[in-house]
Structures are given as structure tokens and as C-alpha cells.
Design a protein that fits this description.
Radius of gyration of chain A: 27 Å
Structural class of chain A: alpha+beta
Strand content of chain B: 5-15%
Order of helices and strands of chain B: EEEHHHHHEEHHHHHHHEEEHHHH
Order of helices and strands of chain A: EEHEEEHHEHEEHEEEEHEEHEHE
Number of domains of chain B: 1
Shape of chain A: elongated
CATH architecture of chain B: Orthogonal Bundle
Strand order of the largest sheet of chain B: 1-2-3
Helix content of chain A: 10-25%
Shape of chain B: globular
CATH topology of chain B: Cytochrome-c3 Hydrogenase, chain B
CATH superfamily of chain B: Cytochrome-c3 Hydrogenase, chain B
Radius of gyration of chain B: 22 Å
CATH architecture of the largest domain in chain A: 2-Layer Sandwich
Oligomer: heterodimer
Largest interface: A-B, 24 and 20 residues
Strand content of chain A: 15-25%
Number of strands of chain A: 16
Structural class of chain B: mainly alpha
CATH topology of the largest domain in chain A: Alpha-Beta Plaits
Number of helices of chain B: 16
Distance between the termini of chain B: 41 Å
Largest sheet of chain A: 5 strands, mixed
């Protein structure tokens, strides 16, 4: 353990803790843009600067560890002014997109602008506008909203270990580019950590705004992993999926299906009752009727052609327990070993 | 009726002369009231609870609906309390405009009082004159704020807009006209034999009792206590203006009447000084954490656009502390106790409503009087149920 003082508060933290983490633990909120709980320190936004031992040259608190006896100041006038200067640099070419941006209302950049009380940061168009090189059918990149914090790149490397995207850095003209398009699985990890609206879903654009949504906690139905989801619901329709970094086995991560495969929920082609085919035409039926018919047909097929004329195919959407019950049913009730599984969705 | 047997009578909540939905259960021995119990709660809208889920700006219209007869005076209470919480100093011009609006609201509240009070005890003419003049204030409200009864003209850190030439003109017209109208009210009532007989010596309360009952405002001053928060703890530049605090002697219905009549005149005096000495300058503070960026700059400046979004979707953030701030509303000490928790919403808002204390004093005011005098007494304390039930 090392002891230090942050804003005149005595703290004691394990060795190797960064100043930012120690301050957050002590309830001191240092503004950040590129720091994310799940990611290693990036240190690109220069918002979390602090003064150590009265030294006027500020350092990034997100990647400096606490040292014994250190005296840290997180909110001095000089620091505030430096933060405003740094933020104005970020804002210089930021598109005036809030009114049409999906992220507006839960945007880290907006919150930091309000918190620091920044005024007078007029928009200057870029001489060479950025081109959206990176996008998939599910993820859209808005180059003029990007603040080059590198959270997405870090998430792709550090959480997923894929490395599909990188920053092409050329001063002001830096932007996200695709390193290897084939590697990208559209998992949306980059989109989840993006502090602004630079990476958005292609699906739920313009469907709703954060302050109009209800968030409903649920579990993903795709596979047996049981990832925790938060469905964004507006007017009784699911308009998006997000997660909470503190919850469940997934801790904020999702795969492409969990994150983007929600449109089937409200699809009008979904079956709502069992259908029975009679004379080549489907008609709606009750569950009792449908199950009775199925049981009757199984029995008659088994009697006529033997149990091995029936095969069962189950789904990865079911839990292990459900799959076990299914094979038990096929083996013990039907009496066949013809059981298989789609093994993937 | 048999000797010693009392009957119980319900006055309200739908009695034409009980002012709103106040219900008083009176026990009568013949025509004499031996016991009176006010029942409240018929107009409960959960305003205090509602304020906890609204941000600081959004709760301003709720305060209008406390004492809706003098809405701007409640705005004054709420906004100054939030500004005390946030440590905001409002520009001088905004302070003067607020004083004008609050004093107009006080006159509006007193108009409703004199009209209905006189109507209740048989003087029907007064309400027509009172509402004729009240209409002029409604027009002023409409001119500057768009709304007539509940203008919601105040904002955290100032007022919603600057004056218009028509506003100044209309206020000056009203200031010029109203003393004549007030003389008319006096002619109708002050020396009217029926009026004095119905009000003199009715429902007296001593200064000591009034203080013990927590009475404030004109009802306290009617008993001879010169306590007015505008003088005792000046806020919003009230110390700039020259005005007197009228007081009564006996604390009966007639004295409370005289105090309010004089308050009409004093309020007009304040408005006159404020409108003639209206300072130049901004009408709201310019703080990036509170003021809305204007609609022109949000089209060219990302920081203004982002702040506008935060201010509208979340609201201004208040500090983690608690304050109590009281102003002189039309009915008395209107206090707001706010507990901030470092978010956009107050953790708790408690309203110290003067009318609640006035209604609580009814048992001791009514007992011993005739049932007909109950109407005069309820009218004289001037309660508005929107403020009692909240």
C-alpha cells in the first residue's frame, strides 16, 4: 500500500494504482474523455491532468501511478484553463451534429463541455474533410464527430484481441481506418466505448433519443452464455441494445448477435400462434390443439415406421438444461439416438 | 333546540364562501361556534414530491401553482432560494423586473381577496371593480410573459426576457390609474356602515397569539407586528425602495382589511420607483452552467450547442448543500427549504406556506363568534388552498 494526498484528502491504495483510479475511489471526479473502466490507460485526451507536488507542469492522472507521499491537486485554476484549451482543440472541427446525433443526451463530450463551462469554440471546417473509410453494415463511422480518443482501437485490441481498426494519424487529419476488413466481426465493442457519436449503429439511427427511452434489464436469448442486456425501449418497441459494464458475465461486452440482432422482436412476420396446415393452407390454432396433434402424429409415425424414422434437431438458443431434456425426450420417449444440434446460430 | 345540545355543520369543501376547497367542521351552540376544525388536503397535487423529479428550471412552473392568485411572488421565492443554493447574484435589472412582477402579483392577490371577501359578506359591487383592475395586471403579464394568471416569467439567474415598450407603457398606465381605483374601493367599503359592523371587533387575535400561531404577512401585521421580510431581510433590491409597512392595532377583520388596503398603495409606490429607475443591463446572468445559449450561437459554436443540449436534457447542476430562503409573498412568509445533492434535481423541496399557518389559526379565530362571522373571518385571513395542500 502507498499513501498520498489528493486534494488535501489522505488516501491509501495498493501499489500500482493510478492517480485517476485512486481519486475516483476517494469520490473525487476528474473529467476524462479517453479513459474507460474496461480499457488500459490511453492518455490521448489530456482532460485528466493533475498537478503533482505543486509542480506546474501537469501530468495525465490516468497513466501515472500513485507514489508514496505524493501531493496531488486535481482542480486548480491553471489546470482548469489548461483543460479548456485542450478541450477547445478537440472541439475545433467537431461537427455541429448534436440535433441529429444518436449520442446527444448521453454524450461524454457534451458532459465535459458543460462541466468545464466552455464557451466560444466556433466551428472551423476542415481543409481536407475526413472520409468515412471504416463502416460495416451494422456500424457507421461519422468521421467529423470523432475526437480521436482511441478508445475504439484499444477496445478492439485489448478486449476482443482482433485489431481490425487503427488510427491513421496525421495531425489534425487523423482518423479511424480499417487495418483488416475481414477481421472485423461487427461486434460493436468499438461502438459501445465510443464517448461521442462517432461510431453509431446503422440500425437504430434516428429511432429515438436517450432521454425518451426506457432501459429494460434482460438476458440475451441467443445462446446459453446469459449475457446481460439493457434493451432501449421507446413506445413499446425495442430500438437498441446496450449493456452495463458492471453487470453480468459479459461486463459490457456483447457479440454481433446480442448487440444488433434485436429487430426480430417487433417484426410483423413473427408467428404469434401455432399454425396447422390443412389442405395446403395454414390456419391458426391453440397450443393445446397443436401439441395434441404433434403428439398424435409422433405416435402414429413411431408405430408405422419405428422410432428411428424420427430425428430431433435442437438449438443453441436453449440452455444446457433444456438441451439435456431434449435429448432425454428423444431417447427415452421417442426411442431414437437421432439427436443433433445446430451448434451455432 | 334543547339546552346544551350542539349541532355539527360542514362548511366546504364546496361552499361558495370558503375560498377554494377548504372544509371547516364547525360545532354550533345555537348560532355560536363552540368548536372549529379545518380539514385540508382536497387540492393535493404533490408539488413538493414532483419537484424532486424535475430539474431546477423545470420546477419553476410548479411554484406558480402554489398561490396561483399571486403567481410571480411564488416564482420570486423559489428562484431566490435556488440562487442562494447555487450562489448566484442576479443582475440589477432582473432584480428590479422581478420586484415589479412580484408587486403586481401581490396586488393581483389582494384584488382576489378584496373582491371575494366583500362578496362573501354582502358587498357585491366591489368584485366588479377589483376584477376590472386585475384584468389590467393580467394584460401586463400577457404582454411580457405570454401567460396571464401564472406567468412563469422568472428563471434561475434572472428573468425570461427583457421588457417591451408596451410593457413599460402598460405598467405606467396602471401605476397612474390604480390610486384612483383604490380610492373607489375605499369609498365602497371603508366607512360603509354595514361593512364596519360586519368586520370591526370580529375575529381579533393579539400580537402574542398571532406570533405563537405562526401567522405572517398582512394577518400578522393587522395585529400590530411590523414584520415584513422585504424590510427585515431584504432580497432582490428591496432595500433600494422607499415604502412603509402598514400595521393595525386590534387584529380584527377590519384591521386586516385596512392593512391590505394600505399594502395596495405601498406596492404601487414600489412599482412606480422600480419602473422609473429601471437600471440598464442584462436581465439574466451569463453563466455557462445555467444560462441557455442563444439560438444563433448554437448554429456556429459546438460548445454552445453541446451545453444547450445538456441544459435541456439534464438541466443545471446544483451543489450538495441545503438552504432555507423566505420571501414576503402576498399572504406572508413564503419559504423554500431546498436540499441539493449535487445533481440536477433537489433531493427535497419543502415549502413553508403562509396559508397553512393561517388556516391552522382558524380554530382560535372562529370560536365564540356567530356562524355568519365565520365567513368574514375566513375571508379576512385570505387563504389560498393551492398553497396549503401543495
Amino acid at each position: 500500500m502507498v499513501s498520498a494526498t489528493i486534494d488535501n484528502r489522505e488516501i491509501s491504495v495498493p501499489e500500482g494504482t493510478t492517480i485517476l483510479e485512486a481519486a475516483q475511489k476517494a469520490g473525487i471526479d476528474i473529467p476524462t474523455l479517453c479513459h474507460h473502466k474496461r480499457l488500459p490507460p490511453i492518455g490521448s485526451c489530456n482532460m485528466c491532468i493533475v498537478e503533482i507536488n505543486g509542480n506546474t507542469k501537469p501530468v495525465n492522472s490516468c497513466n501515472s501511478p500513485v507514489e508514496e507521499g505524493m501531493k496531488v491537486a486535481t482542480d486548480t485554476k491553471a489546470l482548469h484553463e489548461q483543460r479548456v484549451v485542450n478541450l477547445k482543440k478537440i472541439l475545433k472541427h467537431h461537427a455541429l451534429d448534436c440535433p441529429i446525433c444518436d449520442k446527444a443526451g448521453e454524450c461524454d463530450l457534451q458532459d465535459v463541455v458543460y462541466r468545464l463551462g466552455v464557451t466560444d469554440a466556433p466551428f472551423e471546417p476542415r481543409e481536407n474533410p475526413r472520409i468515412a473509410e471504416y463502416s460495416t453494415s451494422l456500424i457507421r463511422y461519422w468521421p467529423e464527430r470523432c475526437i480521436l480518443c482511441q478508445r475504439c482501437v484499444t477496445a478492439c485490441n485489448a478486449i476482443k484481441g482482433i485489431g481490425a481498426i487503427d488510427i491513421k494519424s496525421d495531425g489534425d487529419d487523423g482518423q479511424i481506418v480499417v487495418v483488416d476488413a475481414d477481421k472485423c466481426k461487427s461486434c460493436g465493442e468499438c461502438l459501445f466505448v465510443c464517448p461521442t457519436g462517432a461510431l453509431t449503429e446503422n440500425l437504430s439511427r434516428y429511432k429515438g433519443r436517450p432521454w425518451l427511452e426506457n432501459r429494460v434489464e434482460t438476458t440475451c436469448t441467443y445462446c446459453g452464455c446469459g449475457c446481460q442486456l439493457q434493451l432501449k425501449v421507446m413506445d413499446n418497441r425495442v430500438i437498441g441494445v446496450t449493456t452495463d459494464v458492471d453487470r453480468g458475465v459479459n461486463q459490457g461486452s456483447l457479440c454481433v448477435k446480442g448487440r444488433f440482432g434485436y429487430e426480430f422482436i417487433g417484426d410483423e412476420n413473427r408467428l404469434t400462434t401455432p399454425l396447422i396446415k390443412e389442405n395446403g393452407e395454414f390456419r391458426e390454432a391453440s397450443w393445446d390443439e397443436a401439441l395434441d396433434l404433434t403428439a398424435q402424429k409422433f405416435s402414429s409415425i413411431k408405430e408405422e415406421s419405428g422410432p428411428d424414422s424420427i430425428a430431433g434437431l435442437t438449438s443453441a438458443k436453449c440452455t444446457n438444461e433444456e438441451n439435456y431434456l431434449f435429448q432425454k425426450f428423444m431417447r427415452a420417449v421417442i426411442g431414437t439416438n437421432n439427436v443433433d444440434h445446430c451448434a451455432r446460430l | 333546540m334543547a339546552e346544551g345540545k350542539t349541532i355539527t355543520l360542514n362548511m366546504g369543501p364546496h361552499h361558495p364562501a370558503t375560498h377554494g376547497v377548504l372544509r371547516v367542521e364547525v360545532e354550533l351552540d345555537g348560532e355560536i361556534i363552540v368548536k372549529a376544525t379545518p380539514y385540508i388536503g382536497y387540492l393535493h397535487r404533490g408539488i413538493e414530491k414532483l419537484a424532486e423529479s424535475k430539474n431546477y428550471q423545470q420546477a419553476i412552473p410548479l411554484s406558480d401553482r402554489l398561490d396561483y392568485a399571486s403567481a410571480s411572488a411564488n416564482n420570486m421565492g423559489y428562484c431566490t432560494a435556488v440562487e442562494k443554493l447555487m450562489g448566484i447574484e442576479v443582475p440589477k435589472r432582473a432584480q428590479y423586473l422581478r420586484v415589479i412582477m412580484a408587486e403586481l402579483a401581490r396586488i393581483m392577490g389582494h384584488h382576489l381577496w378584496i373582491g371575494t371577501h366583500a362578496l362573501d359578506i354582502g358587498a357585491m359591487t366591489v368584485i366588479f371593480y377589483a376584477f376590472r383592475d386585475r384584468e389590467m395586471i393580467m394584460d401586463i403579464n400577457e404582454e411580457i410573459a405570454g401567460y396571464r394568471l401564472t406567468p412563469t416569467f422568472f428563471r434561475i439567474g434572472g428573468v425570461a426576457a427583457d421588457t417591451t415598450p408596451d410593457f413599460i407603457k402598460k405598467v405606467r398606465e396602471f401605476v397612474k390609474w390604480f390610486p384612483k381605483a383604490l380610492q373607489g374601493y375605499h369609498t365602497l367599503l371603508t366607512e360603509n356602515k354595514i361593512w364596519t359592523t360586519r368586520t370591526m371587533g370580529i375575529g381579533p387575535i393579539s400580537a402574542k397569539d398571532a406570533i405563537n400561531a405562526g401567522l405572517t404577512g398582512p394577518s400578522l401585521r393587522g395585529s400590530g407586528v411590523a414584520y415584513d421580510i422585504r424590510k427585515a431581510f431584504p432580497y432582490s433590491s428591496y432595500d433600494d425602495f422607499d415604502f412603509k409597512i402598514p400595521v393595525g392595532e386590534k387584529g380584527d377583520v377590519y384591521d386586516r382589511y385596512l392593512v391590505r388596503m394600505e399594502e395596495f398603495a405601498q406596492s404601487i409606490k414600489i412599482i412606480d420607483q422600480a419602473i422609473e429607475n429601471l437600471p440598464e443591463g442584462p436581465v439574466a446572468i451569463d453563466s455557462p452552467w445555467i444560462t441557455n445559449p442563444d439560438l444563433v450561437s448554437v448554429q456556429t459554436d459546438i460548445s454552445e450547442l453541446a451545453r444547450r443540449f445538456v441544459l435541456h436534457t439534464k438541466g443545471p447542476v446544483g451543489p450538495d448543500k441545503e438552504v432555507y430562503h423566505a420571501v414576503e409573498g402576498a399572504k406572508g412568509e413564503l419559504g423554500f427549504y431546498l436540499v441539493g445533492d449535487g445533481t440536477e434535481h433537489p433531493f427535497r423541496m419543502k415549502v413553508r406556506s403562509p396559508c397553512f399557518y393561517l388556516a391552522s389559526a382558524l380554530p382560535r379565530l372562529l370560536v365564540g363568534h356567530m356562524i355568519a362571522d365565520a365567513i368574514a373571518i375566513i375571508g379576512s385571513i385570505d387563504v389560498v388552498l393551492g398553497e396549503i395542500d401543495r
